[in-house]
Amino acid sequence: xxxxxxxxxxxxxxxxxxxxxxxxxxxxxxxxxxxxxxxxxxxxxxxxxxxxxxxxxxxxxxxxxxxxxxxxxxxxxxxxxxxxxxxxxxxxxxxxxxxxxxxxxxxxxxxxxxxxxxxxxxxxxxxxxxxxxxxxxxxxxxxxxxxxxxxxxxxxxxxxxxxxxxxxxxxxxxxxxxxxxxxxxxxxxxxxxxxxxxxxxxxxxxxxxxxxxxxxxxxxxxxxxxxxxxxxxxxxxxxxxxxxxxxxxxxxxxxxxxxxxxxxxxxxxxxxxxxxxxxxxxxxxxxxxxxxxxxxxxxxxxxxxxxxxxxxxxxxxxxxxxxxxxxxxxxxxxxxxxxxxxxxxxxxxxxxxxxxxxxxxxxxxxxxxxxxxxxxxxxxxxxxxxxxxxxxxxxxxxxxxxxxxxxxxxxxxxxxxxxxxxxxxxxxxxxxxxxxxxxxxxxxxxxxxxxxxxxxxxxxxxxxxxxxxxxxxxxxxxxxxxxxxxxxxxxxxxxxx
Length: 497
Ligand code: NAD
Description:
By secondary structure, the protein is α/β, with parallel strands linked by helices. It has helices at about 40-60, 65-80, 80-90, 95-115, 115-120, 155-165, 180-190, 205-215, 230-240, 265-275, 300-305, 325-340, 375-380, 395-405, 420-430, 465-470, and strands spanning about 5-10, 10-15, 20-25, 30-35, 125-130, 130-140, 145, 170-175, 200, 220-225, 245-250, 255, 285-290, 345-350, 365-370, 385-395, 410, 410-415, 435, 450-455, 455, 470-480.
């Protein structure tokens, strides 16, 4: 019997009383590597009650002490980088290098959280009226919660709890039930870094457990990352319950290729950005839009894509790993079939992919459709597999109109040698994260992760200054300290006098 993943409540790792278990499997073999419990209502409520009680003490902990926890944590994460990446590769199937990248992008956010004193600084203006000063403080909210997806089990939890806790909040994490072992290791190291008991709690499960968080009056703010329908549901239900909610959702990211771009750079970057991580990235490039003569590079791109082969996590020649589950594989295969039925031209077909020695893995090979049109389902839906859709237009204006008509707005990129084309694209495109000769423009944590349109529901984004505002309240103080006891008559107006 595979081991049961534990909950983390009140600073203790505990077995759940639940009998409702979800198996965690190795996507290359289907071996069950753990059982994740769906926490009971009592357990979820105990975690929230404990987080609420601990908040009273944690919010009074000096900010420099909170920062020091993050400094020790980032050092520990670096020390255990390879070990965490191996756990991550085991449950996601990612190649070792890609798994290390997942952990690294999370470590960067912890480094940023270690800078919390400067991030919390408020504003001051002296003499807003005669003898009166106004200044603002950033104060924590209370208990916050985070619900994370399967595709970045290190990076996305680390987008959330370190900054929220550094701000002075306590935090409840509900990781993806498909890969809970990586977040468990992250939490063990957080405890080792000296985080006081109870500032972070972990509950496991699915919709039922998320609903308990959404409905509990003591959760003040909720961060979600996952698919569009779930994101919309969580945003609606959470805000209806008067919570602050940020919900990062699915995507369809376009790369526009101008004929003056560097051909080899385009091909190399498109291969990695489209089928890397088996296309299971919210910032993967899933549509390549060739402008004018750039379409002449399509055969060479197809050749390069066809050469990439999937494999197991420690196969150094593998370009990417399996899909997360047999269900995910089935869905991607259905989408590939649909593309064929809709009349898209198949230049590379990965639907019959096998990997020697791993007959049960969720393998799908690189797939490249050409002549894709906007009415096809393979264009309209997020496929979340190693599938690239090729499209052709005659001008940059046409490319911009095509991208802007798409309901998603997570990321996009343009490849060009022209500053004017790059400037026009960055200015006119209605997408929140833009790369110019950069294929996957995920901002570093001193900026924020700024998806738009159907890729994000809410207003304040992940990490950076926006996350600090999301996880805190601003208090503005207007103060007068007269040198003598000046008592004047009542001021009947709203003016400061
Ligand atoms: P998912 O929506 O299926 O699950 C995400 C989380 O929500 C999990 O913790 C899951 O347990 C929970 N959940 C699932 N169904 C629920 C329901 N009905 N009610 C309440 N909670 C529910 O997403 P996934 O398959 O784990 O992740 C892939 C998706 O995440 C893709 O669409 C991808 O684009 C998106 N994603 C977006 C970003 C971003 O920053 N925009 C980043 C990573 C992934």
